[in-house]
Amino acid sequence: MLTTALAFIAAPVAYAAQTVTTLAQESAYVAFEMLTKYMASVGFILFDTPPDELKTLLVKQGEAFEKFKQANDQLMAAKAEGKAVSDLSTTVEKINAEITELTKQMNDVVKKANRPAVGNTENALTEDQLEHRNAFLNFLRKGDASSLSSLERKALQRGSDVDGGYLVPVDLAAEIDRVAGTISVLRGLSDVRSIGTNKHQFRVKTKGLAARWVGEGETGGETENAKYARIEIDAEEMEAEPHVFNDTLEDADYNLEMDVTEEAGIAFGEAEGAAFISGNGVKKPRGILTYDTVANGNYVWGKLGFVVSGAAGAFAAANPGDNILNLLHSLRAQYRNGATLLMADTTLAEVRKIKDGSGNFYLFNPDPTGNFAGYVLGAPVEIDDNMPVIGANSFSIAFGNFKRGYRIVDRSGIALIRDNITSKGTTKFNFRKRVGGGVRNFEAIKLMKFA
After folding, report:
1. How much is the average pLDDT of 343-355?
2. 391 vs 79, 311, 313, 427, 449, CA distance in Å?
3. Whole-angstrom Cα distance, residue 396 to residue 376?
4. Cα–chain-centroid distance for residue 162?
5. Tens of pLDDT along 140-190?
6. Is pLDDT at 11 greater than 50 in this prediction?
7. Where are the extended beta strands (E) located within 262-308?
8. Which of 51-60, 116-125, 391-400 has the highest mean pLDDT?
9. Cβ proximity of 348 and 388 under 8 Å
């Protein structure tokens, strides 16, 4: 069964992963060098990151995974022979934790390199936008809002959408969204739209037209009409409020705009990330794990299909990889290209231990680019600790084409209210943003239930 899973692997990634896996036993460093040359030959760019830093992390990851496989092989052999395994279990868990930490460090390096720094976008702004930006920064430091409203209308062709506040300049708003996107995993995977109203409505085709064969001289008649479902997503309001000491505002060498936008972005990202997974839809987005679920064999539109792990709160004791393969193939073929496995760190730590039915190959392989947490049977893995840890009847793994399955809507404009009155000696910057989210295509997301 596992052989068919190779259909998930795009050709360049497959070759790269195979190269690293084969050569890692000889030298993780050589593997990295060979991979870099191969990717360059086919037009891959290994991100704009410090090469030595990323190379060092990748080499350490390769070395750690080889140690992990050796220790885990010894652990499984000892269990089969009925020997004591406490020391081996400790070793495996220690190396597993090391791989998890290395993966996190690599992801941080890649995300940081791919996120432009604040203040580098002035050349991309129009004259009106630049004038508005400068006035807005003066408002941040000194509270001077004179002429800011008129400049806002010139730069954004609209007035403030929040009473008592001012819209954040377009480049700072984009930076807040970028920071939030590096924290909220699902935002980076999903279909994100900007809207100008409080509500986003659209229709999804749930059933297409059916053609029929018609013989010579026969009358075909009408075919059954296509069916559509109406989806509605509300943009709910959330806020973040970083504080700055007033004397700090007077320091010319203090990068106020970077500090407050980063703090707002982190706060928004953390709140969104949790809501996109488990939000109940009341004054917040509706998360993927709050919809009705059904065994995938009985799937119907409006519910998310699931497959079982084979044991309550655990993977199946025998051939656990088969159920992971069932999860991958529960998603229809048209959605698999671009699909991602979503799980918490602790869940991936358990997945790393799983071998195929023959006991020869691990289902997991490290990501040679450092962009993902690794690959399981060729499917990329993203870590989101908002996903529940493994427990009885938990839905701890999601596999989906989230770009086609989940939509996030951002109400245009992030607003700011400056408050230097309510807290003596401190100025509060109240950022407000309106965002919503919900499943747009129930076929495109599947879950694993640990039962």
Report:
1. 94
2. 23, 10, 4, 44, 9
3. 15
4. 29
5. 887 887 777 667 765 555 444 455 578 888 788 888 888 887 788 999 899
6. no
7. 293-295, 304-308
8. 391-400
9. no
Is pLDDT above 90 for 389?
Answer: yes
Q: Write the Ramachandran bin of 113: left for phi over 0, alpha for psi from -120 to 50, otherwise beta.
A: alpha
Q: Which residue in 288, 103, 255 sits closest to 175, CA to CA?
A: 255
Torsion angle, alpha carbons of 440, 443, 447, 449, to 10: 120
**Residue 223 in tokens:** 């075919």
- Tokens matching residue 23: 């050569």
Integer angstrom CA distances of residue 176 from 49, 56, 266, 279: 21, 30, 8, 21
Rounded to the nearest 10°, the torsion over CA 241, 242, 245, 247 is -100
Identify whether the C-beta of residue 166 lies closer than 8 Å to the C-beta of residue 160: yes
Instruction: For residue 105, give both structure tokens.
Output: 């460090």
Beta bridge partners of 353: none
**Residues facing 426 on adjacent strands:** 245
Residue in this structure with the two tokens 């190779």, named with its chain if needed: 6
Q: Among 196, 274, 292, which Cα is nearest to 235's?
A: 196
Q: What is the pLDDT of residue 223?
A: 64
Quick count: other Cβ atoms within 10 Å of Cβ 158?
12
In 127-213, where does DSSP find H-type helix? 127-142, 148-156, 170-183, 185-189
Contact 397/327 with Cβ under 8 angstroms?
yes
> How many whole angstroms separate alpha carbon 332 and alpha carbon 26?
38
The contacts of residue 133 (CB under 8 Å, 6+ apart) are: 122, 125, 155, 169, 171, 172
| pTM assigned to the model | 0.74
Buried b (16+ CB within 10 A) or exposed e, 302-314: ebbbbbbbbeeee
| Residues 309 and 323 sit within 8 Å (Cβ to Cβ) | yes
Which of 274, 239, 280, 253 is CA-nearest to residue 433? 239
Contact indicator for 435, 408 with CB cutoff of 8 Å: yes
**pLDDT tens digits along 284-295:** 999 999 999 999
Query: Which pLDDT does position 246 carry in this prediction?
Result: 83
Work out the average pLDDT over 211-218. 74
The single residue listed with the structure tokens 């749930």 is: 206
In this structure, of 70-79, 244-253, 390-399, the range with the lowest mean pLDDT score is 244-253
Residue pair 203/229 in contact by the 8 Å Cβ criterion? yes
